[in-house]
Amino acid sequence: MTGQTAYQELEALFQKVHHFTHLSSMAYWDSATMMPPGGSKARGQALAEVSSLINDLVGSRKTGDLIEKAETARDGLSDWQQANLREMQRQHFNASSVNSELVRAHALASSRCENAWRELRMENNWKDFEPLLSEVIDLTREQAAIRSEASGLSPYDALLNLYEPGQSSSTIDTVFARLKAYLPDFVKQTVEQQKGEVLIRPSGSFPREKQRALALDLMKAVGFDFNHGRLDSSHHPFCGGVPEDVRITTRYTEDDFSESLMGVLHETGHAKYDQGLPGAWLSQPVGQPRGMGIHESQSLFQEMQVCRSHAFLSFAGPLMAAHLSNPETPNACWEADNLYRLYNHVQPDYIRVNADEASYPLHVILRYELEKDLVNGNLKVRDIPEAWDEKMQEYLGLSTRDNYRDGCMQDIHWTHGMFGYFPTYTLGAMNAAQLYHAARKAIPNLEEQISRGDFEALNHWQSQAIWSWGSYYSIDELMLQGTGETLNPDYFIHHLQQRFSPL
Amino acid sequence: MTGQTAYQELEALFQKVHHFTHLSSMAYWDSATMMPPGGSKARGQALAEVSSLINDLVGSRKTGDLIEKAETARDGLSDWQQANLREMQRQHFNASSVNSELVRAHALASSRCENAWRELRMENNWKDFEPLLSEVIDLTREQAAIRSEASGLSPYDALLNLYEPGQSSSTIDTVFARLKAYLPDFVKQTVEQQKGEVLIRPSGSFPREKQRALALDLMKAVGFDFNHGRLDSSHHPFCGGVPEDVRITTRYTEDDFSESLMGVLHETGHAKYDQGLPGAWLSQPVGQPRGMGIHESQSLFQEMQVCRSHAFLSFAGPLMAAHLSNPETPNACWEADNLYRLYNHVQPDYIRVNADEASYPLHVILRYELEKDLVNGNLKVRDIPEAWDEKMQEYLGLSTRDNYRDGCMQDIHWTHGMFGYFPTYTLGAMNAAQLYHAARKAIPNLEEQISRGDFEALNHWQSQAIWSWGSYYSIDELMLQGTGETLNPDYFIHHLQQRFSPL
């Protein structure tokens, strides 16, 4: 077999993987949005089966041999094919390090834990949740040890690299130390400074259907492609599905539309990245998103940089009024100045997904520190609630004692076996600030366009800067080509200072 | 390897197949209910991939060898294991006769044709539909020829056996000839006799949400398990999903609730069969439904035998009134006598799924005759509309000239590559009449129970007679153990005479 033939065989193999990933993604989406409770056991088994099949296909000895063979023909491959081969190699390494039985056991335990969590969180029931989470963490640690051995990275870094290829916890420690030094005081100052602000909160009841209609209008305005995606409801909002059919979800609270509204715009940012991936390469590793820090940068670009800006809120205000007005919402509450103050109000609170932009990184740092300790064995599952409470008190001045529901049981990630994922949220926030800075330089009247609801130039810029590259570049290269430099946290700090300076 | 070990390996293999079938069924359901149009190409490819994988697993040489080996230990297997092995053998034979490339091509062409059909039918566009259907039929004929060669059956019978193991078109020809001789005159007489009936038709608008709420109430009343299933909307109603999570669909017409109402109860009959399959054997071939004629007998048992009866309508009337009353619906229209006349009104019409019980078999016979000719090469795709029109005129006195939408483009089956399926509808109707006759003998006050909305004894009887047996028995054995005799069309003829005699 020639190296060229080997490469062609690899493309065919990864196309097959793409098809199975499609079924798996859709079945996962369904389990969170549509599935009746009685279906969860069978679903968990089916998801574990296909996850194990995908791991077998990507991680097989045969795939490894084909990659080795294809490497000999590297010079005859196009640039994109070479990048594709590099990504195949990375996926093969990740898949082959861990045997499929362990992958399967991990998927099964995660599915059990996640399904139980939906109920147990509602009941604030830590006691019954703890053993299920322990099982997931034991299997995660087993995986981490094996991946560490194979990669030469620390166990935690070996997991982190699944989501953020090429990043290390020592880099993150440095950046996070800076934020940890800066943010608690900044949060306090901002709270102090905002005390005098007059906020007109829209009150009354906002029926789900009206919130949904507004969300659909705004998704359409910013460029979500409804021919290749939809919006539904789930306990924990997420962006799922496949690039050809992106499924985003939200949850509605009838007495407060703001949670769902910004949540939808956030997931829309993720969705636009998926929908904008390079069409010719969707079935191949190089056509996939470039890590979760970049993915999160696109959701935060949408939510934080664009949709919480004064320009966007002056465009969205009238639409919000049209959908949500009721006798308890004076016209003044829909004015841009008021919405801007509302949507950029700093108030330390329990729930990460509802956190303001300034306290959010502190939620992430808390989780990052705890999960490093969990993976390294320095923290026992039974001690999570206490450790959580301590750090919440230290970083945000809040106690979560006996409040598991709004404390350590609020997120889906650990239940789902995802460790090493949380830091990507804050890497994303920093990437987003840097990217938006570059977009403003490239599009001189950007804010005026946004205030008119015209996102064409911006979407085009994002497509050229990020979306259309898939995994062609490394993370550093991608940021370099998109913004002219690699990650520089100054932009994020600067953005926060601007965002929270008085109007 | 011992025969016992081989059998155990086969169970593990078919469990894996069960998991992939789960993903495939759910993705199919999604494509009909949730998927945006732009997702259809990727979905078609993913469905074809898993269909080909399942075919490979079930049809592989290795599976054949394991079956042969397990046969040597047959005496050491339990009765259920022996029946399971027989069903494995049957599935292996069906899967191994046709190579996976052809299965894949057939699945892809079907997916393309079905997806296009959704639009083209709306547009009454036969011209663009014809080449897509031709492609499906060519690949179907190719399959039929190979299956015929392998089984020694005629090409059409080889396809029929995929849905109705052990049946032949010569038996069906005989039974259908009898119905064809009896029904056209019976339909005419009944139309004549019903002419003097006063029907009070509920008119006005019946919002989808109210129709849905009524449907959910009735599904619950007759025993649909919502912990293991749900109700949604699609172009063509169907019962899909998996036994652990049964998904039924309907379509709503706001000016006529009756179409959706009886459609939902029909699919509920299918669903209850799936939900009632033997729990311990769900992942194995012997735990699957016993052919489509029996499956259809359960939907028609629910719809025709139970829900269109006077007893049921006297129970359902008040519920219907509670959900659907409006200024244009006088109280008298919800009375059992009136509903009975409405729901048993004979009126030859174009659409099979809306047909009354007496003309329905004539719709089936038309399709059966055409599809036999299509498979045998005696009818060209381009001649379908003319042949359809001719037979409609002959059997039901209706012309479908230039009306493809309500003629040969009304059904999903052929677009989806299902040939040999249609006759099972009428086999089902006959089985249903025979089973209901047996149930009445077994439960003396059955109709009184139904009129009170009490379905416990009846569901228990159906479970014992049919559901809990899965594929343990052959079709003939199953009818014998459930009713005391094999299929006897007298019960169906007798049922029609009773049903359409004046109140």
Q: What features would you describe in this structure?
A:
2 copies of one chain form a homodimer. With 503 residues, chain A is mainly α. Chain A has 2 domains: 162 residues; 329 residues, Neurolysin, domain 3, CATH 1.10.1370.30. A 3-stranded mixed β-sheet of chain A has the order 1-3-2, with helices on both faces. The radius of gyration of chain A is 23 Å and the shape is globular. Chains A and B meet through helix 1 and helix 2 of A and helix 1 and helix 2 of B.
Largest β sheet strand count, sense and barrel closure of chain A:
3 strands, mixed
Question: Largest interface, and how many residues on either side?
Answer: A-B, 33 and 34 residues
Number of domains of chain A: 2
Number of distinct helices of chain A:
20
The CATH level-2 architecture of the largest domain in chain A is identified as: Orthogonal Bundle
Q: Helix proportion of residues of chain A, in percent?
A: 55-70%
Share of residues in strands of chain A: under 5%
In spatial order, strands of the major sheet of chain A run 1-3-2
Structural class of chain A: mainly alpha
Q: Quick check: average pLDDT of chain A?
A: 95
Distance between the termini of chain A: 67 Å
